[in-house]
Amino acid sequence: MLVKTYGSAVHGVNATTITIEVNITRGANFYLVGLPDAAVKESQQRIESALREHGHKIPGKKVVINMAPADIRKEGSAYDLTLAIGILAADEKINTEEIHKYMIMGELSLDGTLQPIKGVLPIAIQARAENFKGFILPKENAREAAVVDNLEVYGVQNIKEVIDFFEGKSDLEPTIVDTRKEFFENIKKFELDFLDVKGQENVKRALEIGAAGGHNIIMIGPPGAGKTMISKRIPSILPPLTLREALETTKIHSVAGKTERNSSLVTQRPFRSPHHTISDVALVGGGQFPQPGEISLAHNGVLFLDELPEFKRTVLEVMRQPLEDRTITISRAKFSVEYPANFMLVASMNPCPCGYYNHPERDCVCSTGVVQKYLNKISGPLLDRIDIHIEVVPVPFAKLSEASPGESSETVRQRVINARQIQEERFKTHKGIHNNAQMTSKLMRQYCKIDEAGSSLLKNAMERLGLSARAYDRILKVSRTIADLTGCDNIKTEHLAEAIQYRSLDRESWGK
């Protein structure tokens, strides 16, 4: 008897429905075709053991299973349940009338229990698009799939529940999630707050400007100055995720298997902090069977690179194109996948190998030229994509022992949201442009006009401080954001003066 069941393959951040055709006829042997990988081929042993535990078995006949379309490679163990139900149906051990209405996915243990799988959210979205009645999957993944409305989602713990469901012996309880309620309840819950940061007012101001305009930031300072502590609090001052952004972010984390069990939507902006030993493939994504990398997992959030010069040069250079295009395309001989990568880059570094160049109290022990050589580990083109350079100095004891709290993240965040709303209104007719950091040269000429006094100030600053030509555009973009934070329509000289301070590494005197 020929029976069809349905699973799904994830390609990039989208899913493709896979039809599992099972035909059982006279003869012997078990054939699994349709470009399955090793994990799919090994499903026979898992299915055989799981069925035996619940009083069933693979029939001693000729079993032919085709996974269509046959030109798409099928990967992973998530097809175990799809195949097992197809075999039972083709062997006429369970009712086949309702099977075609459901998407069925899950990895089987030897005792028939189901293990969680990856990519549930894209699969659920595709199932709804193709008008499936429901989605049967492991219980740990049910809340994630239930984010998709107009689709019945059934979380099950073992294969016996699925068999009884199709036999009509028992009903499954659908998982229901009030997506909007949960989303809006959790978007403002943060464990870390700017209240915890003592002193460092200039650094907090720079981060506020960066968050308001979507600017990339690099912090330079000695060990223990608080660079990492402050960076971890950046998501708490960024505007809350929109429902669309939350869905995008959850899809990426779902495909990578990074979502928490029994969770639904990602409600807070991601903060990713890879170690400096990371490979270029792990950072941007890829591999034999491409997976999203750290820059995609940081989509709509923050990518923090601590000790930037310690990263391999090749790793840093592969980020140049994603920083401009906000996407990363991974190409292979037979296909290519595209992952979104719209993130705010925040980097930190010591000013020299010993860490104490320009320290107010301790002497640098690095020899002549070593400081500049250390800085040269970061290429000019990458530094060109970082708008704000801020020097971080250690906090004196008097500041650390102060009892009075600083500004809360909520207060700063409200100013950031107000500035972002101004930018959204400004760029509403420009597709793909949402903040000042994304402005093109044409848009800068339109929105970053400065008066004669401002032009004179900028000219003098570039000549006296030895600022490079690449600093010019960055100063204008940052000054536009500073003007937005103060609610000014035009860029004033004080906005330019503050923006000029944030180009430390462009000064010719730095490191000499």
Do you know the CATH architecture of the largest domain?
Answer: 3-Layer(aba) Sandwich
Arithmetic mean pLDDT:
90
CA radius of gyration is 28 Å
Q: Can you tell me the overall shape?
A: elongated
Q: Tell me about the largest β-sheet.
A: 5 strands, parallel
Number of helices: 22
Q: What's the CATH H-level homologous superfamily of the largest domain?
A: P-loop containing nucleotide triphosphate hydrolases
Spatial gap, N to C terminus: 80 Å
Domain unit count? 2
Given the helix and strand composition, which structural class is it? alpha/beta
**What percent of residues are in strands?**
15-25%
CATH class of the largest domain: Alpha Beta
**How would you write the strand order of the largest sheet?**
11-14-17-10-18
Poorly predicted runs = none
| Subunit organisation of the chains | single chain
Explain how this protein is built.
This protein has 22 helices and 18 strands. With 512 residues, the protein is an alpha/beta fold. The chain starts with a strand and ends in an 11-residue tail after the last helix. It is 36% helix and 16% strand. The strands form six sheets. A five-stranded parallel β-sheet has the order 11-14-17-10-18. A four-stranded mixed β-sheet has the order 1-2-4-3. Strands 5-8-9 form a three-stranded parallel β-sheet, with helices on both faces. Helix 2 packs across helix 3 (80-90). It has two domains: 2-167, Ribosomal Protein S5, domain 2; 185-506, Rossmann fold (3-Layer(aba) Sandwich), CATH 3.40.50.
Brief write-up:
Helix content is 36%, strand content 16%. The protein has 512 residues and is an alpha/beta fold.
